[in-house]
Design a protein that fits this description.
The chain has 19 helices and 49 strands.
Amino acid sequence: MKMQQLIYLIVFLPFTLFSQNNDIKGIIVDSKTGLGLPYVNIGIVNKGIGTVSDEYGQFILMLNSEISNESIVQISSIGFVTKRIKVKELKEIPNNKISLEEDIYQLNEVVVSVKRKEKYRDETIGFSFQSKKKLGYWRGDGSLGAELVTKIYVDKKTRKLNSFIFRVLENVSDSLLMRVNIYKGNTIEPKEKINKVNILHTITKNYGPEEVDLRKFGIFIDDDFMIGLELLKVYGNNIDLVLSASDEPGYSYRRYASQDKWTKFRGDAMSFSLNTLALVDDTKVENIKKERAKLVLHEQFEDNPLIEKFNVKNTVYRNISGMVFNDGDPLPNVTVKLGEFSATGTLTDSYGRYNIMAKVDDELFFSYLGMENAHRKVTENTYNLNINLKREVNELSNVTVTGREKKKRSQKELFEEYNNDEHIIKTGFGIIEKKTASIAMEVVDVGSLTSRPTDLIRLIEQNFSGVKLGTVELSNGGDNVAIFLRGRTSILNPRPAVYEVDGILYSEIPNFLNTDNIKRISKLAGVNATRKYGSIASGGLFIINTNGANFSPNSELITAIPNNRKETNLYKGDALSEREYLANLPEYLKDIKSSPSFESASKVYVKYKNSYSTSPYFFLDMINYFLDYWEEENLHEKIIEKKGSLFSKETKYLKALAYIYDAHGLYEKSMEIYERIYKLKPNSPQSFLNLARSYSENGYYIKSANIYGRYNYLLNQEFLVADVDGSHPIIVRNFNVLISNSGENILTENIEEFNDHDKLPIEEGTRVIFEWNDENASLELQFVDPKNRYFKWKNLSNYELGENLRCTCKEYIIDNASLAGKWLINNNYGGNTHLTPSYLKISIYKNYGSPSETKDVKLFRLSLKNVNQNLLNINI
């Protein structure tokens, strides 16, 4: 029998082709508080098109050409009244901000725990048998809100649900956020939910049973019901979640997207089982509910119905979710408890995420070694709570002692301490210190081992946990030995670990290495740790430093590029020159750049404009050209008047236009665009950076300071997360320059100044800032110093990471004193997900931080992929 006949297919794939122009972006908020509501279901009723809002209430609903403006969008969430609205009405709502009203009936539900008595006994219900022929799974890109439900049959007795058990056969994602939904069983299909709060569960296992604790939700059933799993969020590149199914007779239901119609499967059930506390006698449900209420409400309130009504809402448990950070980095293993001395609590995962059940007026207590504790009270409007923990500092007799052994060190400091600190490892993306890294890693200092095998495989096997040997099939039909990391591989598609040796990546075990020449090895197993390497490292990664390795770290402050004994970082002059690059431009740019006059250039523009009438990139190139050569003719303004609507649809087009204006010194025009971008993306740190800098360039210093102050306020209130690798240090340094140059008198009581530890020094030197308009663009910058040595910095695109990139800028400061001479800056453009050009703006500040500071802005059109291209030369 073929495998296709053995598998019970429940595949959630968005087969319909979507158009970005029809996407609806919005936010779901609580009508009372205005705060975003997490994990709300949004979709076109019964059309297979739907999604789920994220933890902040934001969503993107992708529509196809078959959906008309009269189609109904349904928006529903536990604890709130369901809203139905036409597509055309949704598009007309200002900022697509949709408010949901609280469902008063649901808020008044009583959720309590039941004390164990003799009349209760433990019973398991549902389907625990695992079929060898049937599976249920989510696969492919996945559709948020896709759900799989099985009907559970019970005898007619009252029982409390203690736990829900299902079995994972495979999970290739780092983790998946699921919602457990429990429905009444007396309907034709899943319809009315029994649970009145969100029951969230994160699947982190690659294989094995998963158990969801239901005791704290106080859910009682006395008849048949249905239970299912709904996909809310994916942490990783793809979905391949395989669950066990059962051969026992039963019913299951599935839908492919949020608010989609249900499809019923007769005779097929998932292996969903539940542990319950069942009532032995036939006590009626009314008496049970009365007994439950007495356990919660204090005796002195029993005779006062008004007080009882007031207090009953405070007994409702709700799921509180969020993230814990420290200076923008997620903190794993933070303890989150219901009160400082409570035994009830949880830990944050590797991404800093947590989920905990709490009631109104409960106090959440956050603690982490070396950090200051934090307390937050749960209010009626608390659903999502993000916390930024500050480093614990004690001052004793003028001596400052930090809670950790050492604070996070700079790349330069790590480079200098590498030989003496066995917890430091060098990678192609910089130097990592185990003690302060926000990722899980193991480091073994091979040089300090008393004995070591001569074989690399045995060396790794003996010194690292979770290692197992296997084989992989070669293209010639043979086999090769490979290392697999337990807990990181797929049972249907196992992937071996890969290896980075002195900055060079190998897909096979580098057996050519002499173990006597190995200085240090590190194991990175988690997706968060290996994401910079892309999908090739999805099976895990071993980083190997040899005794002769001395490759340069990716330091933001360039004070030296050390010599490499192997001379692997010696520049060979292989970058494409400007002349060679121009030869690869599109035909319309070649034609117009060869025009000897404005009249002939205008004819070239007219020749091509109809063919490229819908391409924003064509008109951006034309605007840039006419500003370069024929600005006084004002043709660029006429192009914007006629084709401006092409630039208003996406911020990446607006950014490119603003960069063009900046490169030509038209700062007033670019300021208007940065204001529009700020309104379109008010939660992006890059929006604050661009607008504040633009205000300063146009002389609006108080406005600039106010934008910096608002950014810092939102950062302190945890509405924003600092992009510490991109925009944040630039913002802080720009603010310091603004205060230094314009005086303290621009500060008002409405401007919140940056904390002392954020006040970066204004290093004298040459400051170079890179900004690109497309967050999906992949760049690899190469810096060549006067001694012809180089180092590289690479950002990974949204496509490679499988997640949104916050970083679209990077800053470097070159020390004038130690590195004077001619510098080359090259770039290897890796493209973007749309196969379109990207625009790179480079701002060069010479004599930065001194009275003689000068600024020069260059603009580059990036389109030639996978070729090292010379961008500019700087004489320092």
